[in-house]
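User: I've been trying to design a sequence by hand for this structure and keep getting stuck. Would you show me what you'd pick, starting by listing the structure so we're on the same page?

Assistant: Good idea, let's start from the same input. This is the structure you sent:
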């Protein structure tokens, strides 16, 4: 049976060694600061799933929380790279990176390949992923702020319940990537490839999307705010979306439908549209004065 007092003392010790407050730890674990306080006072213990996440965040072995675990002193371990704490070894001793539940600040992963293992539930600030392979990446409950993903492959990835703000995705591939209940805010997505991308139940606001590739891109129940679309927009869809300060400028809209309550907040400047798209816009009472019909 676990000694709750010993477990609490170990949590507190590991937390202080990484210079993290109870409030910061609780935020990464999605629990209240009061819960962390109870653990450290020995009044209760986290469940096994939370212990696993605690180990990842605090950079300790899961067995660290057991009463008989013998750990190295700080002096014995200080010469080892900190990254070693985030390796999980399989039975054949092949290392498997687990970067989830971490607090990644100013890390540089530029040029690395196969970075699709585990970054979920992490706080990522000012990190670099320039020209990296993050294809088939899965992010859940992440906060990603001021990171640089320029020229990276993020295709076939899944973002769930994540906030992405002030990031650079210039020349990125986001082909077939799915965003669910996520907010993309004040990011530079110029020249990005959005082919087959889906944004569902989230926000797409104040982003720069100059000369992006829009093909089979879907926005579903998304708040679209302060965005300028340009270039060719083909086989795309906007369904049950809300618009505010949205402009289509020098854009060519082909086979793109708008199934929304109101299109009055969309402004069209020097645009062209095929007959089908034109009728969708007309049905939504959009201002068509900035649109001319494409010749059939």
């Amino acid at each position: 049976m676990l000694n709750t007092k010993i477990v609490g003392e170990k949590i507190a010790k590991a937390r202080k060694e990484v210079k993290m407050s109870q409030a910061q730890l609780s935020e990464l674990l999605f629990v209240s600061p009061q819960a962390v306080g109870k653990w450290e006072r020995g009044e209760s213990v986290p469940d096994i799933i939370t212990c696993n996440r605690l180990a990842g965040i605090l950079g300790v072995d899961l067995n660290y929380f057991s009463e008989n675990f013998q750990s190295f002193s700080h002096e014995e371990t200080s010469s080892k790279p900190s990254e070693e704490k985030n390796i999980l070894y399989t039975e054949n001793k092949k290392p498997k990176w687990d970067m989830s539940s971490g607090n990644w600040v100013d890390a540089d992963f530029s040029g690395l390949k196969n970075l699709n293992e585990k970054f979920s539930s992490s706080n990522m600030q000012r990190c670099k992923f320039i020209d990296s392979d993050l294809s088939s990446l899965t992010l859940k409950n992440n906060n990603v702020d001021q990171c640089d993903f320029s020229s990276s492959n993020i295709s076939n990835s899944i973002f769930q319940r994540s906030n992405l703000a002030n990031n650079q995705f210039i020349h990125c591939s986001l082909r077939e990537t799915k965003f669910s209940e996520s907010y993309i805010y004040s990011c530079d997505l110029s020249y990005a490839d959005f082919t087959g991308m889906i944004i569902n139940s989230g926000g797409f606001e104040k982003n720069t999307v100059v000369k992006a590739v829009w093909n089979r891109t879907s926005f579903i129940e998304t708040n679209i705010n302060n965005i300028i679309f340009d270039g060719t927009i083909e086989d795309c869809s906007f369904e049950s979306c809300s618009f505010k300060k949205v402009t289509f400028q020098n854009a060519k809209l082909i086979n793109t439908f708008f199934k929304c309550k109101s299109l009055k907040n969309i402004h069209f400047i020097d645009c062209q549209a095929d007959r089908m798209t034109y009728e969708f816009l007309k049905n939504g009472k959009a201002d068509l004065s900035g649109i001319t019909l494409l010749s059939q």
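That's my pick for every position. To get oriented when you compare it with your attempt: The first strand starts at residue 87 and ends at 89. The CA atoms of residues 90 and 96 lie 7 Å apart.
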